[in-house]
């Protein structure tokens, strides 16, 4: 499992250039919701897939929803998002 920092480096290596404000939102949301790195990374991935770019408010809202529904893994997050027809 990658830390959020490692995941952001991975995304950059794949050509996703996140602006400083987006990175700030990522860490704000992770700390605000007390989410694990795995869940924060899943929320980043799903935000990029749904929005086609990084949308900080969507990310924080998604992360809040995942945490409040006691989702703890990437697999559960993907399943939850598909079931709720978010993607």
TrEMBL record:
Organism: Cytobacillus oceanisediminis
Annotated protein name in UniProt: Group-specific protein
Pfam families: DUF6123
């Amino acid at each position: 499992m990658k830390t959020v920092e490692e995941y952001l480096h991975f995304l950059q290596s794949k050509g996703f250039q996140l602006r400083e404000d987006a990175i700030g939102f990522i860490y704000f949301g992770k700390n605000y919701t007390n989410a694990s790195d795995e869940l924060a990374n899943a929320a980043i991935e799903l935000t990029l897939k749904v929005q086609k770019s990084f949308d900080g408010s969507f990310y924080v809202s998604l992360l809040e929803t995942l945490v409040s529904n006691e989702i703890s893994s990437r697999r559960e997050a993907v399943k939850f998002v598909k079931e709720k027809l978010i993607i």
